[in-house]
Design a protein that fits this description.
Elements: E1 2-6, H1 11-18, E2 27-30, E3 39-46, E4 50-59, E5 62-71, H2 77-96, H3 111-119, H4 124-135, H5 139-156, E6 163-170, E7 172-173, E8 185-186, H6 187-190, H7 194-214, E9 218-226, H8 234-247, E10 255-261, H9 268-276, E11 281-284, H10 291-296, H11 303-315, E12 321-327, H12 334-347, E13 351-356, H13 369-373, H14 378-391, E14 395-400, E15 411-415, H15 422-429, E16 434-437, E17 442-446, E18 452-456, H16 461-466, H17 468-485
Length: 486
């Protein structure tokens, strides 16, 4: 597929729009409006009074052409970009017969569009009208986004301006799942690094603790992610958590979360350490309750192992457990996914997060991504979860989208009332400062005007350990920026 540009440079949004309909690799040609084969061509031409936008799409023997004109005083960059993408969207919708459920929206935070309208005083009917008129979003996805926005808005308003969240990275997993795109490392290759990694992480936590204390900030939420934090042993988990408690005042923390994740890393001993150190929310993630699918994606545990891990957590007193599911996994069927959904609801966790399979370049599935898409039932799977979970008391409270997600669908967190994950809401809405510690962790600083500054730690454990001194010099940048904000 060739994507052609003439007299404009809106590459990112045009490409994102094309990807709503067509997968695969693209060739980009500039100052060109025609070429052989399948093409998406776009052009902007400015006249004395009007600006003219043109889109032409050809797939095989079929082609569609559309045009639009704007008064020059209305033709600013953002409007031209949106209208050009709208023309391309309409052309490709006509040619392919595909009607993307999120319409023309290509961003990862569609709920923010609804939230902004609600903040301006719009009611539900007005929100739907504006979103359908401008972005052509389906009614089902508008209802999902609206419910999500209404559920999370009171929690967003509860943020103390002097509060921050902490993200602690444990970038290890027993094995790497075939769909995974995170910077995580299998235990076989990383076990020798773990003691040194834990020491370095504890040092960084101590340094962050001094920053928090000096600037008189309060910690609102703590999130241990990865990887799989429970990949390390119970003693190492205990060391990190005790360092955290010794270095940082956690008395105001409203949510302390550990992404326990995979059943093959969860033991009673680790859960006891987590519970003893004050963790209030954990995840036990089946992804699927189909053992054959688990083998295909590279998991070494069974569905029964997940059930046993969940029950062990309950027996130890955990009363806020999340379970992650993935719609669209290779070889999974619609009926199998429905069984997974039913089994998850039967276990009765406080929250259920439904992800759509996303295939990134660093995932092994990317070597032949078409295989993962064959006979995929992800749209039906997502529709089933949208219908079933709210009916049974799990309401949508956060939602986001990713690039290269099957059918350009979404990831949605559902929770019983009062069990919404604050950290998940805050990181998606980008309204609270998040300080990251550990390999591949990202610090997100947000000033009073909403400007975001990101400071990234090194991606790989050996680099994080070996260049620790250089990395800690970045902490002065954090102090300087936070100092101006507080």
């Amino acid at each position: 597929m060739k994507i052609l540009f003439k007299d404009h440079e809106f590459k990112y949004e045009v490409e994102a729009t094309v990807k709503l309909f067509i997968t695969g690799r693209f060739e980009f040609l500039y100052d060109c409006v025609d070429a052989d084969g399948d093409i998406v061509s776009s052009q902007i031409r400015k006249g004395k009074e009007y600006t003219y936008l043109f889109a032409f799409c050809r797939l095989g023997e079929k082609s569609v052409r559309k045009a639009y004109k704007l008064n020059n005083h209305d033709a600013d960059k953002s409007i031209c970009e949106h209208e050009l993408c709208r023309l391309i969207f309409l052309c490709l919708k006509s040619l392919t017969g595909i009607d993307p459920p999120w319409g023309l929206l290509t961003g990862i935070r569609p709920v923010k569009k609804i939230t902004q309208l609600l903040d301006l005083g719009a009611n539900k009917e007005e929100c739907f009208y504006r979103m359908k008129e401008k972005y052509m979003v389906s009614d089902k996805r508008l209802e999902l986004a609206y419910m999500t926005a209404k559920n999370q808005m009171p929690l967003l308003r509860s943020i103390d301006p002097k509060s921050i969240s902490l993200y602690i990275s444990i970038p290890f997993c027993p094995t790497r799942c075939s769909y995974c795109s995170f910077v995580s490392h299998s235990l076989d290759s990383a076990v020798k690094l773990m003691p040194e990694y834990v020491r370095a992480l504890c040092r960084e936590i101590e340094i962050i603790g001094r920053i928090i204390s000096d600037l008189k900030l309060t910690v609102d939420t703590v999130y241990f992610g990865g990887g799989t934090p429970t990949s390390i042993c119970a003693a190492q988990l205990d060391i990190i958590m005790k360092t955290l408690a010794d270095s940082i005042d956690l008395s105001a923390v409203r949510e302390y979360d550990v992404e326990s994740g995979r059943a093959d890393t969860i033991t009673p001993e680790k859960l006891a350490v987590i519970k003893r150190n004050g963790v209030t929310r954990i995840s036990v993630n089946p992804q699927t309750f189909n053992n054959d699918v688990l083998k295909v994606i590279g998991r070494q545990h069974t569905a029964e192992d997940t059930v046993n891990a969940f029950k062990t957590a309950r027996d130890l007193g955990f009363d806020n457990i999340n379970m992650d599911l993935i719609a669209g996994l290779p070889t999974d069927t619609y009926d199998s996914f429905c069984h997974t959904l039913d089994k998850t609801m039967e276990l009765d966790p406080e929250s259920i997060t439904v992800h759509t399979l996303t295939i990134k370049r660093s995932a092994s599935l990317y070597s032949d991504p078409t295989e993962a898409y064959k006979g995929n039932y992800a749209p039906r799977m997502l529709d089933r979860s949208i219908e079933l979970l709210p009916e049974n008391g799990w309401l949508p409270y956060y939602l986001y989208r990713q690039k290269n997600t099957i059918e350009n669908l979404e990831n949605t967190g559902y929770a019983k009332k009062g069990y919404e994950s604050l950290y998940n809401i805050f990181i998606m809405d980008e309204t609270q400062v998040i300080l990251g510690a550990g390999c591949a962790a990202s610090t997100k600083l947000i000033d009073k005007k909403g400007k975001i500054t990101r400071i990234h730690n090194y991606k790989f454990p050996y680099e994080y350990i070996n260049r620790f001194g250089e990395l800690m010099k970045k902490k002065q940048q954090i102090t300087d920026i936070l100092g101006e904000m507080t």
